[in-house]
Write a structure and sequence with these properties.
It is built from 13 helices and 16 strands. It is an alpha/beta fold. Helix 10 packs parallel to helix 11. The chain is globular.
């Protein structure tokens, strides 16, 4: 009886112990699950673990993985400013606005594809962008129509509005901020010089700027002995290390004296060579604007003693010998050469500006031609064509990395904007229906240029 009872007791005790162990395991598992669940954040708070990236920042970053640069703080779109590349420059004079920040993220491809030459002229009482009585530091007096006897200035109040895209308002601070550590070079004829002077007036607002440095010597742009003016000008804004220059090259080809010891020597006009200045300094340019056109006539070539050369020898090709053929050959040549340089200088933005129209009526410049109209937009206010009306310029840049700065059609509507019969001395004579009053039409050329850089 004793042994049987003892065995029963042992079995019962074993079962009891096994039950306790199982119960303990179940309780432990339940406790651990409850504890882990209590540590999880509620679903509404999960957003705090990964900062929200505003769409504008993701768009600016392109295909880069923005998430790898996030922190534990939220990013507020209004506080996001793209850093400038300058390291050592002071920008106390540059005031960024909300609009500036917005336009930093405008899709560059969309801006480049826009047809800025299609649109209409509209009246804008906020114009001009600088005073026609000011900007004496940069503007030649012969082009400052406010300094002449002209009394109508409605032409200063017109602004160009592209049809299919917005064109950002130009301001000097915006331009300098966009052109930090960069150089803008205009290379061309006197219309290129007008565009250069217009740009200097637009950047400064026509105000005196004693801080702006004359750096012409860096480019060999100094007045030679006996010359009336240097071959160009170069100025630098030290606050942003921005340089703006102009080099006179009416034909956009290389000119070489045939006899350097003879002051009356002829010049080889190398139609297939870029100007020596451009070849020497193109590596220093970030934005290049080329133009030519109105010097391509027999009178100019004869007066300048220019003799056409191709391949280093006098030209014998009859088609090229014709003025139109020589001009076409040269424009295609210079655009092709610049295009060949773009892979070497990937940061360079190059533009060929279409021809600026003349408005001589009832004759030419030397046969009594005039441009006396003072009514703005008497020829219309809108350009509806999709294609440029300068086929040479459009054809030359087609298929290249050189962009067309198409200003011909929009300028064609502005016959009232020329110098006309007005001058500083009020002397009668030949009317200037080629160059423009400043402020005036060339300011629009620069606005379109600014929109594309």
């Amino acid at each position: 009886m004793k042994g049987g009872f003892y065995g029963l007791k042992v079995a019962q005790v074993s079962l009891i112990l096994i039950g306790f162990v199982c119960l303990a395991v179940l309780m432990l598992a339940w406790t651990k699950t409850t504890l882990l669940t209590s540590l999880d954040p509620p679903e509404s708070d999960l957003s705090y673990l990964t900062p929200e990236i505003p769409f504008s920042i993701r768009e600016a970053a392109g295909t880069k993985d923005v998430s790898q640069n996030t922190s534990s703080l939220r990013v507020d779109e209004k506080d996001f400013v793209s850093p400038l590349s300058s390291k050592d420059l002071e920008f106390s004079a540059i005031q960024s606005s909300a609009e500036d920040e917005h336009h930093q993220y405008v899709n560059s491809t969309q801006r480049q594809d826009c047809n800025f030459g299609k649109g209409r002229w509209v009246i804008d009482d906020a114009r001009p962008l600088y005073s026609g009585l000011g900007c004496k530091q940069w503007l030649s007096s012969m082009w400052a129509c406010r300094m002449t006897q002209r009394t109508d200035f409605e032409y200063e109040k017109l602004r160009w509005r592209p049809k299919d895209c917005d064109m950002e308002d130009f301001t000097g601070p915006k331009f300098l901020t966009r052109m930090v550590n960069k150089t803008l070079a205009f290379v061309g004829d006197s219309l290129g010089r007008q565009q250069f002077q217009s740009m200097m007036c637009m950047i400064t607002g026509g105000e005196e700027r004693p801080d702006v440095l004359d750096v012409g010597k860096e480019y060999g742009l100094v007045k030679a002995r006996g010359a009336t003016r240097p071959d160009g000008w170069a100025y630098r804004f030290p606050s942003t290390n921005t340089t703006v220059l102009y080099y006179w090259s009416a034909s956009l080809c290389d000119l070489e004296p045939l006899n350097v010891s003879n002051p009356a020597t002829d010049f080889a006009m190398h139609l297939d060579r870029p100007p020596a200045f451009l070849k020497r300094f193109i590596h220093k340019f970030d934005v290049l604007v080329l133009n030519t056109g109105h010097h391509w006539n027999r009178g100019k070539l004869k007066a300048n003693r220019w003799v056409m050369h191709v391949g280093g020898v006098p030209n014998t090709n009859r088609k090229i010998a014709e003025i139109a053929g020589a001009k076409n050959f040269t424009v295609y040549s210079i655009v092709g050469w610049v295009n060949s340089q773009l892979p070497r200088y990937p940061g360079l933005r190059a533009f060929y500006r279409s021809i600026s129209p003349r408005h001589f009526f009832n004759g030419d410049w030397n046969t009594g031609g005039t441009c006396d109209n003072t009514t703005p937009l008497s020829a219309g206010m809108e350009v509806v064509e999709d294609e440029s009306i300068d086929p040479l310029a459009a054809g030359a840049v087609k298929g290249t990395g050189v962009k067309l700065l198409d200003i011909t059609a929009l300028s064609q509507l502005r016959d009232e904007g020329h110098i006309s019969r007005y001058s500083i001395k009020a002397t009668p004579g030949v009317q200037d229906c080629l160059h423009w009053c400043l402020p005036g039409v060339p300011d629009t050329w620069n606005e379109i240029l600014f929109a594309q850089i």
